[in-house]
Design goal:
Distance between the termini: 73 Å
Radius of gyration: 18 Å
CATH class of the largest domain: Mainly Alpha
Oligomer: single chain
Shape: globular
CATH architecture of the largest domain: Orthogonal Bundle
CATH topology of the largest domain: Arc Repressor Mutant, subunit A
Strand order of the largest sheet: 3-2-1-4
Number of strands: 6
Helix content: 25-40%
CATH superfamily of the largest domain: Winged helix-like DNA-binding domain superfamily/Winged helix DNA-binding domain
Number of helices: 6
Length: 189
């Protein structure tokens, strides 16, 4: 079974850059993380479909809501993207379960691939969970950037920019990876 093809797409600007989004009548089908310029986002979205390029005025209400939520996220607000309808047609039950478990993570909350697999009902499938997240068609909405490797290591990230992008998204959410900053000692003599 193949994945659903988006019927419409839109590129819009946020404080983090230009985001491309696509949808069907059922829900969101694709999202590209912010690009530096509109042309790059348009090129990415054109790979998804040659279908209609919409304006926000032509989009269904759930797309307008998605755009508003993504813009608020870019401004630093804590956003719950799980309220948005997703069209995951053609995506196997394992990946659906992994994405559903990831959607439960709040902004700034992280877990490991193994823990996410456990929460999704697939214990000892950390590697497969990483592969499923690497094929996530809706990054940010399905927050794959919040999933780390064992030991709190960054792990992989298949979006453009790789782990640098993952670290930037986590930093945007207030998550700092790596050792804590050195303590400031004050001694009175």
């Amino acid at each position: 079974m193949s994945e659903a093809l988006p019927q419409n797409r839109l590129v819009f600007e946020t404080e983090l850059g230009f985001v491309a989004i696509a949808w069907s009548q059922v829900g969101l089908t694709r999202l590209a993380l912010p690009e530096r310029d509109r042309e790059a986002a348009e090129r990415r979205a054109a790979r998804w479909t040659a279908e209609t390029v919409a304006t926000l005025d032509e989009a269904p209400a759930f797309v307008s809501e998605a755009v508003a939520l993504i813009r608020r996220y870019a401004q630093g607000e804590a956003i719950d993207f799980s309220v948005l309808p997703l069209d995951l047609a053609g995506i196997d039950p394992f990946r659906r379960a992994i994405y559903a478990a990831a959607l439960k993570l709040g902004q700034g909350e992280v877990t490991t691939y193994g823990e996410l697999a456990d929460h999704a009902g697939f214990p000892r499938m950390a590697r497969e969970t990483g592969a499923a997240l690497g094929r996530n068609p809706l990054p940010l909405v399905v927050p794959c950037h919040r999933i780390l490797a064992a030991g709190g290591k960054i792990g992989g990230f298949s979006a453009p920019g790789g782990t640098v992008t993952k670290e930037r998204l986590l930093s945007h959410e207030g998550v700092q990876l790596g050792p804590p900053p050195p303590a400031q000692a004050s001694f009175a003599f």
